[in-house]
Amino acid sequence: MTENDENGGTDAAVRPSRRVWSSRRKRIEGKTQYVRVSMSEMERAKLLRLEAQTGLSPSAILVDAALGTGDPASLQLRKQELAALLELRYLVATAANNMNQVARHQNTTGEMASNGRAVVQEAREVMARIVDVIEELKP
Predict the structure, then answer these.
(1) Rama region for 133: left / alpha / beta (φ>0; ψ in -120 to 50; rest)
(2) Measured between alpha carbons, how far apart are the two ends of the chain, in Å?
(3) CB 81 within 8 A of CB 87
(4) Could you give the CA distance from residue 102 to residue 96 in angstroms, rounded to a whole number?
(5) What number is the average pLDDT over the span 98-120?
(6) What is the rounded distance in angstroms from the CA atom of residue 106 to the CA atom of residue 122?
(7) Angstrom distance (rounded) from CA 119 to CA 67
(8) How far is residue 41 CA from its own chain's centroid?
(9) Residues 6+ apart with CB under 8 A from 69
């Protein structure tokens, strides 16, 4: 057993403040129910990182992940994330349409369209942007 395991998963100095959790606990209606969760070491490590980043308890993180939240700030963040994803969807559709036009031209004439290289470069840039947005959205 490691030092982390003996202290419930994290050192007391590293563990974030529980103020956020205590305010959530006050909002719970009815009797509290306890649920035991099994997870791999990698999943536990990710949960520990989320605890450090957010200052939330493991229970609060898991409840929010499973059920969502009514917190206006969280809802606003999710709306922004959705807007970013919709914009990416539009960019992918545009790039795909341009690629199809270039391919159609090349298939009918046998030569590459004058803007063919620019269209391929645009598609690569869109894909790179998608990767960046996905990285930003990762918890």
Answers:
(1) alpha
(2) 28
(3) no
(4) 10
(5) 86
(6) 18
(7) 42
(8) 20
(9) 75
pTM of the model: 0.43
CA gap 60, 16 in Å, rounded: 13
Report yes or no: 16 and 55 within 8 Å, Cβ to Cβ. Answer: yes
Here the tokens at position 8 are 């419930």
Of the ranges 15-29, 39-53, 75-89, 108-122, which is most confident?
A: 39-53
Res 11: pLDDT: 45
What is the Cα gyration radius of the chain?
23
Band the pLDDT of 44: cuts 50, 70, 90: very high
What does the buried/exposed string (b/e) look like for 85-116 if buried means 16 or more CB atoms within 10 Å of the residue's CB? eeebeebeeebeebeeebeebeeeeeeebeeb
The CA angle 100-83-119, to the nearest 5 degrees, is: 25
